[in-house]
Amino acid sequence: MHIEVVLFDLDGTLIDSYKDIGTHLNRTLRHFGREEIEIESVRHMVGGGARELLRRFFSNGSLEEALRVFKDYYMKEPVLHTKPYEGIVELLEYLKGKGMRLAVVTNKMEGLSRVILEKLGLLGYFHIVVGGDTYPEKKPSPLPLLQSLKRMQSNPEEAIMIGDTEADMKAGRLAGTKRGLALWGYVKLIEEVPDYSFKTPMEVKELI
Question: In this model, does residue 189 exceed pLDDT 80?
Answer without folding.
Answer: no
